Amino acid sequence: MSEGSIKRVVIAGGGTAGWMTAAALSKIMGPAGIKVTLIESEAIGTVGVGEATIPAIMKFNAQLGIDEHEFVRATQATYKLGIEFKNWGDLGESYFHPFGRIGFDLDGIDFHQFWSRLKQEGGEHGLGDYSLNTVAAYAGKFVRPEPDHGQVINQMGYAFHFDASLYAAFLRAFAEGEGTTRIEGRIEHVEQDAQSGLLTALKLDHDREIEGDLFIDCTGFRGLLIGQALGSQYVDWSHWLPCNRAVAVACEKQGDPVPYTRSTARDAGWQWRIPLQHRTGNGYVYCDKFLSAEDAEEALLGSLDGAPVSSPNHLRFQTGHRDQFWAGNCVAIGLSSGFLEPLESTSIHLIQMGIAKLIALFPDAIEAPIERAEYNRLMTDDFTHVRDFLILHYKATRRSGAPFWDYVRTMSIPDTLQQKMDLLRSRGRFFKYDAELFDLTSWLVVAEGQGWGPQGYSPAASRITSANLTQSLANMRDVYARTAKAMPEHQAYIDRFCKAAGDK
Ligand code: FAD
Description:
Elements: E1 8-12, H1 16-28, E2 35-40, H2 57-64, H3 68-74, E3 78-80, E4 82-86, E5 94-98, H4 111-120, H5 132-138, E6 159-161, H6 164-177, E7 181-184, E8 187-192, E9 199-204, E10 208-211, E11 214-217, H7 224-229, E12 234-236, E13 245-251, E14 261-266, E15 269-275, E16 280-286, H8 293-301, E17 313-316, E18 320-322, E19 326-327, E20 330-332, E21 338-339, H9 347-360, H10 369-395, H11 403-410, H12 415-427, H13 440-449, H14 466-486, H15 490-497
Parallel strand pairs: 1-2, 1-11, 2-7, 4-14, 11-20
Antiparallel strand pairs: 3-6, 4-5, 8-9, 9-10, 12-18, 13-16, 13-17, 14-15, 15-16, 18-21, 19-20
Helix pairs in contact: 1-6, 1-9, 5-14, 9-10
The structure holds flavin-adenine dinucleotide.
């Protein structure tokens, strides 16, 4: 073990988490003399189904200096403007959760307060008509906002759908180019200091041993280092988020890819549809107390847009997180650190948060109790905030009759979430806790879309006459409709900017 300073970082596992961590650490910490080694086992493989992201991924790619169009090309990516939720409020209903802003504030007062007022006065237009993302998504349009595009287009937010295994391969090439050493092999034993319990080395097959100062556990659900060796316990949240299984399958694409994810609520969970350039990803996330694996597979295969192009992949998970994300000299990133179902595409984001916080708190010494405690506090907050937003989708349903939906609709929820829902319900008020990920727009569209929207509005929204309010909001709708109409088709944008010469 080196004398108190961290020089050798060993990453166990090479899924999305492992390669994102290797890429970032070698690029950002490499120049400071940190040597990164990653061990992965092709025989064990990766989960490889993470395909939908949120806009924050742009920051990660930008920090690494990755060219966006090259990234879209390399990962068969499409652009994502938001998520369409079908059958969540009740059967037959749908709404769109867009990235980006909704409407323009008037006289310094939040737009949605005026929208709520107009609704109460009989206005018939939904929030989606005031969101460029929503209007463009349903029209199949996309353009990347550029600084000279003006304030309407610059209200847009976007992310990507991509092939997770291609993303890992892309990042592997990047990380190796930045100096990461990759070792193919199976980790068979974790060596620990007899007195302190700190990790000292990983023993691989063929009698190989890799020593390190700081270890990153990216071994997926196994949690080989953080759980099996260091005993960090798992905090179970499955009483609030009971889905614990998924079956995933890719199918042929039908027509041009749409620029959004679709989430359709089903009898015992929900189904995703993620359009990529070359195929469509699908999966049914469900709770095995209410549905068997065979029935889930049959339901999924019976509702695909095209013929399957892969075998159904069955996965098990438990919602929750490690009580210590960072224990001893080991930091868990990715599925080894915890899991929240992909309803709002947050897993890759939580990986990114783990990496950013590790870099911000990068320890000087192998024992770093202060940095470790802060990291654990921050990551627990990140997981908790996302958890509450996910629970909202289940709690704010009016579906009844199916045992799964009856359970989630009537379950007790965390006090923090109840407080937020009550504030939102009364007069559309919402306040972020600390560095919470999802903002007012997200909470509002989900609550409103599922019939839990504001019942009143802020008195401050009374200051405009009804006639002026009606006219202002009509103007906004018109601006969004015209702007979306003038945008290129999503596929045309990809063809123009993200294809190499000779690509079909
Ligand atoms: P894994 O992919 O499991 O990688 C583990 C790595 O550890 C592998 O390289 C493996 O070989 C290695 N390993 C394990 N044991 C050993 C050993 N003994 N020796 C050597 N190597 C070992 N995220 C999103 O952001 N958006 C989504 O839409 C999304 N959808 C998802 C849907 C489902 C059903 C699931 C389960 C997850 C989804 N995720 C999504 C999450 C996303 O897939 C993961 O967060 C992401 O893939 C990271 O996985 P990982 O790298 O932590 O683990």
